[in-house]
Amino acid sequence: MSEVMKQLVVFDFDWSMADQDTDRWIFEVLAPDLRRKMKTLKNEIQWTDLVAQSLREAHSRSITKDQIIHALEIMPFHPAMVRAVTNLKARGKTTFLCLSNANSVFITTILKSKGLQELFEEIVTNPAEWDPSGLLKLRRRVDPDGPQHTCAVGCSPNMCKGEELEAFLLRNGVQYDHIAYIGDGTNDFCPILRLRSQDTVFCRTSRGLQKRIEHEGESQGLKCNIQYWGGAWEIEEKFSKL
Ligand SMILES: [Mg+2]
Ligand SMILES: [Zn+2]
């Protein structure tokens, strides 16, 4: 590869940057019965709506903002991931984008607790905010009453990460020599289809993205390089060569 001058690193958040799933973790910590209820209802209610509903139920039983923040701060997050992104950013040629189906409060709370609040150029996710009573109000990024994505790759309702990545590249206006995408889930398949032959997906093993790459990668025309990893220490190793 010729020398890369401008590089974009795109991160999924849950199980990619972090070693857990924020939406599920806070209920596992604070209200396991709500976690069970989410598992029961997840095929009936759209996921972001279900998390919003569960947050309202948690609030109604007096689970506090501080408790939720604490649960986020103790969520598994590998020190090697902090080193990997900090060192790569310090080398100067890399822009970081977060594309996540979690929400703005979960992500920024965790990033702040790791000293990474300045890492991302943009965090594309579902909007959330604390109301004065300590309820975390969450809504879908894509208004369910407005136009929905037209993606045919199998993206679930709300965000299509492929469309979101293309929209970021358009409004950002920079030509990147290399795009790296770090992901683990089935909804990370659509954006990596938009990558070019010089780009790289860093796919976490044993999860939905690996299965989709194996089953659909060739038929859907996946062009980018594929590198697999299991633990963040391997991302640290791989990022040192970017
Ligand atoms: Mg994920
Ligand atoms: Zn899509």
From TrEMBL:
InterPro entries assigned: HAD-like_sf, HAD_hydro_PyrdxlP_Pase-like, HAD_sf, Pase_PHOSPHO-typ
Coiled coil: none
Record's protein name: Phosphatase phospho-type
Binding residues for Mg(2+): D12, D14, D184
Signal peptide per UniProt: none
Residue positions of the active site: D12, D14
GO molecular function: metal ion binding; phosphatase activity
Keywords: Hydrolase, Magnesium, Metal-binding
Keyword Thylakoid listed: no
SUPFAM superfamilies documented for this protein: HAD-like
The keyword Membrane is annotated on this UniProt entry: no
Cofactor field: Mg(2+)
